[in-house]
Amino acid sequence: MGLKVVFLKDIIRKMPSDQPNLQLVQFEAKDGIVLPGLLYSPKDKTNKVALYLHGNGSASIFYSPEKMNYLAKSLNKKQIAFFPFNNRGAHYIHKLAKTNKEEKKYGTALELIKDCIQDIDGAIDFLKQLGYRELYLIGSSTGANKIAVYHYYKIKNQVKKYILLSGGDDTGLYYEQLGPKRFKDMLAKCRSKIASGLGDQLIPEYLGGGIISYQSLYDTINPDGDYNIFPYNEYFNHLHLSKKNLFRELKTINRPTLVIYGEHDEYCYGRVGDCVGVLKKECSDKKLFTFEIIPDTNHRLEGKTVELANIICDWL
Length: 316
What we know:
The structure is a single chain. The protein is an alpha/beta fold. The chain contains 10 helices and 10 strands. 34% of the residues lie in helices and 19% in strands. Helix 2 packs parallel to helix 10 (305-315), helix 5 (170-178) crosses helix 6 (180-195) and helix 6 crosses helix 7. The longest helix has 16 residues, at 180-195. Residues 1-16 have low confidence and may be disordered.
């Protein structure tokens, strides 16, 4: 069988007329880390753009082409550009270069959630240089937690609206998985390793959440840490793990926010309706928040890309 040569120009000709303009780009986070992204632009110039923050684990925006492409197409029809990018928590472990040519390992196994501020601000600076002025943040899973962290530490930021998809209670889930004693022991062990300068060592035992270092596990399970944005387990079961006020970060959000969960989100303890009810009660201003539960789907909102895109676009 002979080889068939296909030229890029021929592929472009066959694309639908409403196909977004797409560029693979890279930008610098505020600390010089170089990150990749996809910029989908509508044909007519716009100053509106939605940034997309993926979750953790093996996540990457490059592994969800159907979802990214459809969200982009839908947003572009509303004259909103779409910018999903890989943050430093993409994949479990990988090397990223800095602008000074230094390389360093990042990924979920080593990331600290507060580093999202460096990534988001770098992305915003990059987009502003391209002429975008009206900015929206969409965050899925840990990406939703990151939006809350970003807002808490930078309340006077330039983002107009937030969209939180499937925000997770990782602290509570680890507590349920490990049990009270082992959870407490693991917190102590992580603190000890970090104090000894060994926080970036990988934990040799598998804890069910993938490869992870002591510093990142501590960041994830510390009840008083930045990661603990949606403490559903602690709230429902009166666990009294945290010294900080529950839903502290959520209570500071002072701009229009859309919250979306799948009806069967497997990380909501079988209580998605109750979780959304808690957020309605604890949010800063009910007039600013809109809540949606998409039927018959899970944490990743699988099979519901069309519904998701319609909800987001109509709300924006």
